[in-house]
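Run log // design_07
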């Protein structure tokens, strides 16, 4: 992706600037040039650069002072110093300030090319390592466990679509394991050695989601103190998973569609394109057609992502998998679960799906301590009481649909809040919607605080 990388060349010798511009241009980099550190600083303040190649000795502001100013101002761009007047002291100071390399002139063009390749490879690994450290702190997922017919069919479909480049759209209730399936698709692909990057569109404030996806340059908006790499760039060569797609603002969906179709993005505050090599997997707990009808999902985006659709079964449709999943989350062989416990668990409807089961297993481990597992360690919540729809005999004569839907929706919201003790997050989970959606609907109907 060298064509999307922009390099600033800083040198007071016009001939050297020209040589470097030609050399880097042939390698596919986009270049700008500055005659000294002050001119370079003015260009850097506008953002959009990925690397600085700077001479050491220059009028007005030399390479060391330029690097010092960059670090003092929080500009974390890589910088390679080049000089014909090197000394041990200047080399030590440059490396102390964070220079990526220190080249003595005359040097072979290959030496600079190698240094640049090393810079981008190292920074890519640093970003991946930071992301993987965050991923390592996540709870362990179950994988595609289950012997039921729906899970056997799901694994077969994952095996078929995984090795392809096709976009995948996952649908299913909250807690059915859509991210687990997305990771399984990634692992079944040729991209398995690159990053799998997940974004929950419902968990990020709407005004921050665009920057989260596309990144931004320093000063692109209030609070943008430094350049930020977005999730699309982080996932280069790998897979980007967009969960809760229907919660993405409709205007941002249009920008997402343009990025997918063009195969490139631009960071906020920059007009420079970044070419993409990313596989997309999206998921929603809403029925896509219903979300399109309600204006929450663009139809053209739906068709663009819906190359291969997978619907995840709810846990109540695969009850024979419950014992295997519990054994996995408890770290036990399946035969280690007492029959009384299995009978107790089989009586439950699992409205929260696998996520609820995993939480219940963790709670049981805490309650049991060192004692043997028993039904009392698995307290089952009361099944949600679902408000009944009006009987046909009491339907109004005009059969107006919108008022009836709003009345029923309001009753569901009130029932969910009551069952959840006023906890909006739990109420949203019972209803199978996101927290953002429940806040919107509570405000619409004047419910809650």
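design_07 sequence
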């Amino acid at each position: 992706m060298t064509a999307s990388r922009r390099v600033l060349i800083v040198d007071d010798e016009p001939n050297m600037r020209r040589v470097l511009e030609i050399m880097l241009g042939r390698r596919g980099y986009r270049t700008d040039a500055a005659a000294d550190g002050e001119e370079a600083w003015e260009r850097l303040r506008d953002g959009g650069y990925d690397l600085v190649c700077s001479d050491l000795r220059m009028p007005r502001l030399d390479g060391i002072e330029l690097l010092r100013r960059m670090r003092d101002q929080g500009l974390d761009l890589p910088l390679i110093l080049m000089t014909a007047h090197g000394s041990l002291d200047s080399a030590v100071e440059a490396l102390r300030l964070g220079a990526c390399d220190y080249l003595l002139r005359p040097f072979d063009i290959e030496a600079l090319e190698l240094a640049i390749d090393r810079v981008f490879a190292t920074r890519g690994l640093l970003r991946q390592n930071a992301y993987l450290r965050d991923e390592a702190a996540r709870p362990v997922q179950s994988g595609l466990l289950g012997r039921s017919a729906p899970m056997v069919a799901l694994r077969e479909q994952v095996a078929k679509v995984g090795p392809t480049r096709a976009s995948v759209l996952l649908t299913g209730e909250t807690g059915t394991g859509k991210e687990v399936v997305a990771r399984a698709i990634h692992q079944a692909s040729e991209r398995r050695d690159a990053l799998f990057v997940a974004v929950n569109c419902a968990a990020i404030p709407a005004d921050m989601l665009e920057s989260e996806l596309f990144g931004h340059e320093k000063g692109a908006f209030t609070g943008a103190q430094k350049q930020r790499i977005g999730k699309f760039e982080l996932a280069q060569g790998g897979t980007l998973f967009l969960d809760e797609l229907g919660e993405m603002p409709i205007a941002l969906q249009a920008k997402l569609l343009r990025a997918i179709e063009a195969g490139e993005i631009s960071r906020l505050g920059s007009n420079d394109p970044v070419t993409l090599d990313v596989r997309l997997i999206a998921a929603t707990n809403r029925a896509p057609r219903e979300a399109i009808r309600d204006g929450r999902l663009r139809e053209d985006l739906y068709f663009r992502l819906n190359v291969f659709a997978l619907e995840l079964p709810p846990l109540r449709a695969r009850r024979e998998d419950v014992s295997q999943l519990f054994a996995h989350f408890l770290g036990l062989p399946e035969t280690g679960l007492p029959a009384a416990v299995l009978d107790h668990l089989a009586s439950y409807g699992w409205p929260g799906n696998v996520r609820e089961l995993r939480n219940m297993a963790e709670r049981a481990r805490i309650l049991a301590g060192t004692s043997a597992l028993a039904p009392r360690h698995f307290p089952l919540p009361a099944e949600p009481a679902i408000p009944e729809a009006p009987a046909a005999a009491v339907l109004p004569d005009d059969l107006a649909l919108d008022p009836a839907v709003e009345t029923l929706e309001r009753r569901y919201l009130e029932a969910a809040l009551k069952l959840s003790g006023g906890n909006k997050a739990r109420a949203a989970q019972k209803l199978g919607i996101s927290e953002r959606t429940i806040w919107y609907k509570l405000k619409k109907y004047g419910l809650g605080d």
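The CA atoms of residues 9 and 33 lie 5 Å apart.
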